[in-house]
Amino acid sequence: MRKAITAEQIKELASLVDSSTRLFTRADGEEYDKLIARWADNAVKQAGVVAVPVQYEEVAKLVKFAADRHIDLAVRGGGHSTGGTSSTEGGLSLDLSSMRDVRIDTASKHIIAQGGAMWADVDNAAIEKGLATVGGTVNHTGIGGLSLGGGFGWLAGMYGCVVDNIVAAKVVIADGRLLSVSEKENADLFWAIRGAGHNFGVVVEFTFQGHDQTNEVYAGSVVFTADKLLAIVETLNKLMESGDAKGAAILVFARPPTAPAPVVVTNVFYNGDQAAAEEYFKLLFDLGPVANMAKMMPYNHVNGLLNAMATHGRRKSIKAVTLTNNVEPAFIQELFNDYVKVTGDNSDLAHTFVGMEFYNLEKLNSIPIEAMAFANRGPYRAGVVGLEWTNDKMDEENRDWGRMIQAKCRQKIINSKEYSPETTKTALEYANYLEPGDLMGDKPFGVNQRRLAVLKQKYDPGCVFYKTSPIAPLVTARN
User: Fold this and answer.
1) Cβ partners under 8 Å of residue 303, min gap 6
2) Looking at residue 407, what DSSP letter applies?
3) Topology given in CATH for the domain delimited by 217-433
4) pLDDT of residue 476
5) For residue 158, how many C-alpha atoms fall within 13 Å in the half-sphere facing its CB?
6) CA angle, 152 as apex, 321 and 423 as ends, to 5°?
7) Across-strand partners of 114?
8) Over the stretch 425-446, which tens digit does the pLDDT of each residue have?
9) Residue 353: enclosing H or E segment and its boundaries?
10) Exposed, middle or buried: residue 366 (CB in 10 Å: 0-12, 13-18, 19+)?
């Protein structure tokens, strides 16, 4: 059982850390309030103390201090967890916001980023050297949370997930050691952090593989009226069957404040010139959008395009949903009807969206699911319900609606010909889109669950890191 930090322990901590590590309590007023603020208002918790280190060794001190005294520890990178997993009520909040440096090794094309960096930091630093890597589609998201859980992005069709592009990392584990991990160093921990990293420590530095990206890309939102939905899904299925990994799309149900009714937005991406992009998306454009905002732009601008639908504030909940590889149009129509009804009946949910991600899966699925902890490979597509509201009395009711959609999509997968309870190795929901309480009896890491339990016993038997898709050590896993 993890405990709140006491006033005496805060004094003790202050005497142990370097002067470069700043500590903040409620007595610090506005500065403290800024540090406990999160992307979602409902994820804000009153930390007993917030520590803001700038050195890796200081992170190690903070982790060991919390572990030795059984103090609840939360790690904040970008603070986007809607389930409150980057926050603590009364415990120690380890805030990485002052550790955002990014440097580029042009010889190896490696992008070395500190654990508190945002995706904008990575995208901007890399593009200056003609490079890019797979990253978050909202660029004010922290790199840590996304990377440790898998990480889909616009370049996933070409290069796989973020975890497929991590070549090394520096990790502070529960006993306070700072370990370098890679295929050659602490390889078992390297295996674990790529998909289940939230359970194993604080990653203070990532090394990503960069890829040549000197050309501009074609990207933007294409808006359709709802009557085009079936045709849009059919078209996106055809595009995915083409095998062109340069193209991708995210299909979104939304209620723009200027629109008289819910619309279907297809956010498109093509890693090539405009002529090739327009040829690739011709079938989609031929459906007659009411607005087409897609255009050529530098790659580092792309991951800012969806920021407008992911602003800070208000109450939020993210729910993972999974779809079959070939998405059934009639089923998507059913989900749209559910969306229209709930957002129509409850105007406080008007900012809510449902998204479905269409990336070429060949590269992703060329890597064996046992190659690392990440357990979302297979003939499936990730989707997300992004709930947003203001009335705190509706928290559970709104989350329950999201879980209803989650369960409906899960059952659709289970009923599909691709799924077999005997042979399916994947987890059915993408871990980065899960909140505490969402998993319906399933293991969040699929076939890799048992090995992770063994490694949890080795690296964190006291469960210092337990907030995101928690893994029980081996002794509990056997029960």
Assistant:
1) 119, 120, 123, 135, 136, 137, 138, 139, 153, 154
2) H
3) Vanillyl-alcohol Oxidase; Chain A, domain 3 (3.40.462)
4) 47
5) 19
6) 55
7) 205
8) 999 899 888 888 886 656 789 9
9) strand 353-359
10) exposed
Give the burial class of 471: count Cβ atoms within 10 A of its Cβ; 0-12 exposed, 13-18 middle, 19 or more buried. buried
Strands 247-254 and 178-181: unpaired
Q: Rounded to whole angstroms, what are the CA distances from 307 to 111, 217, 269, 302, 359?
A: 23, 18, 16, 10, 20
Q: Are 112 and 168 in contact (CB under 8 A)?
A: no
CB 170 within 8 A of CB 204: yes
Q: At 76, phi and psi to the nearest 5?
A: -115, 120
- Three-state secondary structure call for residue 222: strand
pTM of the predicted model over 0.90: yes
How many CB atoms are closer than 10 A to CB 194? 25
Least Cα distance to 310 among 132, 118, 150, 121 occurs for: 118
| E strands present in 34-109 | 49-52, 73-76, 92-95, 102-105
136/113 Cα distance (integer angstroms): 14
Q: Is 411 helix (H, G, I), strand (E, B) or coil?
A: helix
Closest to 90 in 3D by CA, of 34, 45, 38, 52: 45
Backbone φ, ψ for residue 216 (5° rounding): -75, 170
Q: Of the candidates 174, 88, 59, 85, which has an alpha carbon nearest to the alpha carbon of residue 461?
A: 174
CATH architecture of 102-212: 2-Layer Sandwich (3.30)
Describe the crossing of helices 395-414 and 329-345 by its angle, rounded to 10 degrees: 170
Residues 6+ apart with CB under 8 A from 404: 338
Structure tokens given for 476 = 């509990």
Residue type for 80, please?
H
3-state DSSP assignment of residue 119: helix
Residue ranges covered by each domain of the chain = 7-95, 102-212, 217-433
Q: What is the pLDDT of residues 87-143, one digit of tens each?
A: 999 999 999 999 999 999 999 999 999 999 999 999 999 999 999 999 999 999 999
Strands lying side by side in the sheet with 178-181: 102-105, 110-114, 202-209, 166-172, 178-181
Instruction: Give per-residue pLDDT as tens, 246-257.
Output: 999 999 999 998
Strand 92-95 with 73-76, pairing: parallel
Query: Is 2.10.110.10 the CATH number for 7-95?
Result: no
CA distances to 131, 145, 340 from 104, in Å: 9, 21, 46
